[in-house]
Structure formats: structure tokens, C-alpha cells
Amino acid sequence: EIVMTQSPDTLSVSPGERATLSCRASQSVSSNLAWYQQKPGQAPRLLIHGASTRATGIPARFSGSGSGTEFTLTISSLHSEDFAVYYCQQYNNWPPYTFGQGTKLEIK
Amino acid sequence: EVQVVESGGGLVQPGGSLRLSCAASGFTFSSHEMNWVRQAPGKGLEWVSYISSSGTTIYYADSVKGRFTISRDNAKNSLYLQMNSLRAEDTAVYYCAREPVTGTGYDYWGQGTLVTVSS
Predict the structure, then answer these.
(1) Of A41, A45, A34, A42, which Cα lies nearest the Cα of A89?
(2) For A11-67, how does the pLDDT look when each residue is reduced to its tens digit (9 = 90+)?
(3) B:9-48 residues touching chain A, CB 8 A cutoff
């Protein structure tokens, strides 16, 4: 089973600043990685698939990069609605599909 | 508009059973692979089960194998999860999640249904 590890667990950033979230896979997942955003009381929302392709309707301030075992989600200029929990997920070697433990992005 | 709507959650005693349903609309259900994902209170996301578009290929997480059964009825645009021998650690919000035809992540999620296993 591939283990996905996200860092940091919590990230404190001010609105308007840049946020960088990391995700590491225990073995290569090629570019078969997705990022999700989840707000309290809501279902997760797909942000990025294929490591770097924005899902439909996702603003351009969200970008993904990386391949193999190291991945990054960058939010270029934080809006108030971006404060949430973010999860990465690999879909290269499955089952099981595996998620990271999540990074909570909070207002500084 | 694409929608997936879960139902069937509730309070059940340890050892009991529950059947979750997911009603799909706004897309060709029979063309999409589907999954169940759960989230324990205050915890992260855990994949539970997968079913192919035709229903012929099925996978389960080790934590539910032998106790849960996923199925689908393409004529009714519905996905199901039969949960038996429930344990306290199965307490979670259960989400129905659609895979796009490209198989790249889960592009639509339901709002979730809460399952609470407690005496």
C-alpha cells in the first residue's frame, strides 16, 4: 500500500499571501495524484488531477506540480474562502486508493 | 447538473447492519466507476470501496473486507453499500464519489450520510 504523507499538518498564512502545501508518496505514483479541498461540513472538492491539471471551475490561483514521489499544491494569493483542509490522493497503484492525512490551512 | 445524493445513514448498534444508497442524476451513470469514501469524526478521508461501471470489478479496503458489499443498479442510477457486522470504528460520514471517465480522481461527491455505531 502506498502511504501519502502531507506537510505541514497546519499552515498559518495571511490573506493575500502565497501558500505551499506538500505531499509525499512512499513510492512513485507517476503523475497520478489529485488534490482536494474540504471546508467544514462540506464534501471534498476536486481541485487538481494529474498532479497539475486544474479541475473544471477551479481558479487559476491554484496550481499543482511534481511527479514521482514529491508533489506541491500552491495557492498564489490566498482568498478568505481558501482557508480549509487540503488532501492529496494517489490513484496510480490501487487498490487501495490512498489519501494523505490532510493539511489544515488557517488564517494567520 | 450532476448530482449524487446519499441516504440510509443512522444510528445502529454494534454488530448491526445498514444499507446506504446513492442516487445519481445529471450524467450517464452506467459510464462511470463509483466509490464510497468515509470520514470519521474529526479525521481524514478513507477510501472504502470501488465498483466498475458495469459492476463486474469490485475492490474493498482491508478494514471492511468481508463485512461490506458494494453494488449498483445502472437501470436505477443507484449505488449501494451494504454494511454488516458494524463496529464502533465504522462510525463516519460516508460519501459516494464519482470517477470521471478518465479515472483521474473523484470529480463529484455527495453531501454524505452519517453512520453512527453505538450501543
Answers:
(1) A34
(2) 999 999 999 999 999 999 999 999 999 999 999 999 999 999 999 999 999 999 999
(3) 35, 44-47
Give me the mean pLDDT over the B90-117 stretch.
Answer: 95
Q: pLDDT value at position A106? A: 96
d(CA A50, CA A31): 5
Phi then psi dihedrals of residue B68, to 5 deg: -110, 150
According to DSSP, residue A36 is labeled E
Q: Are strands A62-67 and A53-54 parallel, antiparallel or unpaired?
A: unpaired
Cα distance between residue B91 and residue B40, in whole Å: 6
B102 has a pLDDT exceeding 90: no
Q: Which pLDDT score, from 0 to 100, does residue B103 have?
A: 83
Q: How far is CA A46 from CA B21, B36, B107, in A?
A: 22, 15, 6
- Residues of A within 8 A of B104 (CB-CB) are 32, 34, 49-50, 53, 91
- Tell me whether residues A94 and B59 touch, CB distance under 8 A: yes
Contact between B21 and B7 under an 8 Å Cβ cutoff? The reply is yes
Contact predicate A34/A88, CB 8 Å? yes
Q: Using CA coordinates, name the residue in chain B closest to A50.
A: B104
Mean pLDDT of B43-49: 97
